[in-house]
Amino acid sequence: MDEVVLGVPQLAGCEAARRKPFEEYTSRYTVVKNSWKGKYMRIFCIGPRQVATINPQSIFRVTNNWEYNSHLVDVVATPGSPTDFTVTIGKIGKPETMSFHCNTAMERAELLTDVQRNRARFDARYRQQVFNHVFDARKYSFYEEYRNCRLRITSIAVEQLSPEGNVVGEYLFMHIKGLTSILANPRTLILLYGPQLKMHLYEMEDCQRVATLIEEFSRRFIGLPPLREVRRLTQQQFDSDRLGVDRAEMVSLAKFPVSKWSLKHPDTPMRRILATTQKYLLELDAATYNPVSAFFFADIYALIRSEEDDQRLMIQFKEPAITKVYTSPMRDALLAHLVDCCRASRNLNVCVIANLFDRGKRAAPCRTPIPEEIESTLLNCLIDPSKGGGPIAMTFPEVVEFFNANIEYSGLRLSENREGLFAENREKMIFSGLAALLNNFPVTDDPLVVVQQFYALRRLCVARIGFSSVAVVPSFMKNIEDVSMKALKMNHVAVSHSVVDLLGTLMTPHHDHYELAHEEANKNYILGQEQLVIRLLRMLRDYATTDSAALVVQALLDFFVYALCPPYCESTEAMLFTSVMKDLVDTTGKELFLLMQHGCNAISYSAGQLIRVIMEEGTGEQFRALQLAALSEGGIIGQLHLAIFSKNRELRDLARQLIAYWTYENTDMQDLMRTIFPPALLYYLQSSEEPPKDEMEEERQRNVVPMTSAFWESKLGWFKKRFHPSEVLSKGAAQNSSPSQGDGVFKRPRHVKVKTTLNWPMFFYEIKRDHLRPELIWNHTTRTELREALEAEMRVLRLGMSLRHENPTSWNYREFEVRYPSLDDELRIGQHYPRLLFEMKDPAISRPKEFFNDMYHRFL
């Protein structure tokens, strides 16, 4: 079977003929082999033709392999042990049994599931009986109606078959958490599935037989314990709890229309809406808005941006290990938003890749960390590809692809040296791996090969020693600059994203125990390359108005936030800070306001941060230009909406500060505020009171720990290996090689030139409260009217933006006014409501002359 592996250059002619293809595996697991000689770590590989064990000090050095047809007898769980399993071989002659040990019971279940997928290849009796356990059934859909289907019980799962007999879904035994039924209908069977116990309801004649087979096969083939007892449910309880998600947590924060592709509908995609909450990704029916499914953001492993279809994206999950396929005209904006949601859920390893993740290259399930020994093997293979084992040496791109499949986006698990006389020098290995990647950069026009190389560089530079190596070794940074400029000239979105992501990693430490001197060296070298910075700014300007590069825009904004915004800007040289800010304003001034209204919160927030720092530390001319742009571009409307109604504290606080700057000594903006809010609310701007603490802005802090002398001292000792990149250079060849925060490190002080005097925190706090006074009626209804008016104007502005490239226009802010229909029936004289005034025991009238003058003209 011919199979093209994306990311590996294809060889042609005699060179291809000389190369023997590597055995393709569908999955790999790190296990321990138990034998009379001792215990040995092995990589247990499962493929379409055989299972094999590989020495963990290589990638392809096979120690044993057993073909399904001629050698393998069975692979079963060891009775009485939750983690052991045995492999029986020898179809001809005396059978031989070998024992292995997995790290966890769940990992053993997954390994056995992958082996049992091929059971029909090595078990003739099972092959004859595989179609015996098929049952007619009807599935209860989210439309609250039953649809005909069939269920087949296999060695690993309950398969759902279409009326034509095609497999359209499966429920793996390892993820079935319980079985129950509907109280009023004994012909029903409910499967509780997955980490959130999503419920699937079927109606059939022989429910008990199906339940018995599930219990029997899951124990016999997968080694699972008996399922727990689950109470029977009413139909109402099932409908309410079907997704396993609390309804209160299903309030969506953002929605994206998509088309869903699945085996159930292979020819015609289903219209769906992907909605996001704080913890879940929801799939909604586009016609009814009924929830179809829900997934934890923490369970997303990778997001795939298809290269073949500019609207296709795929989401790969850890548990269950499934892939969802969608198309959307807003694909990149959706991907950027999903990355932001995963980061907010502390899923820091999720990343966007250009091709489906190949589980056959990873030595453990996606949810399981890779052992340190495997990391060492991969680093050694980067340094010397011949150590990969196998019949021939691996090409460097092949090694890089294996490296990226096993090392998480957040970097190596172990990046510091261990204590011990025979412990490896992991820090030196990282340094050597980084050197190998830079010295073997691919000379190719294949963007996927280039992308893989930048992915690997990022995974090493996110470690302390990788980050410091780039700072200390001049040739490293020069090489990174050269390959980055060359890659950016490819004008390929995936390549550009990988380049900017790497540069962002070098702009600020993403690891603990960072050295400020090294941060300064990396950042100021990059910002000092004017040609590179100008190219990045032009990319930001050009991509800001398109929907096809939101991921690049997000990475570019992060890059400039690290350069200009607190708390990162303390390490930026003053002259570079000023020049980069000027170039940013000159090149992308208006585009920042467009991005501030982006559907992805991360993009909106980063653009707002840049606008804020320009207003705080820029020139007076830049300050006034951004004030004018806030009106002409309509940015004030979206920020008002965030400042009042957003539940995201960072977005809310940023919006409030921007509004304070935009209204500072700006009569047009102040007049606009008077047409939006009642005068009595605006009086709170003059208040001397302070709102509760959670209404005040929190100062942003780094989430990494700086270097300390205690950390360096902990590395000293007789049996402790210590490494610094400068050690491999000749004397005087390194720069910034001091391992301390000593002399020469200068933190740039901030120069905030504008100090607002109005009490904006109190103003926004009072907007959220109800008021019933003679001069102010403010409640849930008026807040709703305000929100609807702002949202309507935001929709008009978005429509105008989509047309502005044809007819440049600006927002007519002078005609915008918020009306409050709920107050139309209230008689109002001046700034007072007489009904409430006369109900007061001791009425007090502010501005009495105006009040009586207005009353005289209206009634007398």
TrEMBL record:
Residues 28-840 form the DnaJ homologue subfamily C GRV2/DNAJC13 N-terminal domain. One of its GO terms (biological process) is regulation of early endosome to late endosome transport. Pfam families: RME-8_N. InterPro entries: GRV2/DNAJC13, GRV2/DNAJC13_N. GO terms for cellular component: endosome membrane. This is Endosomal trafficking protein RME-8, putative.
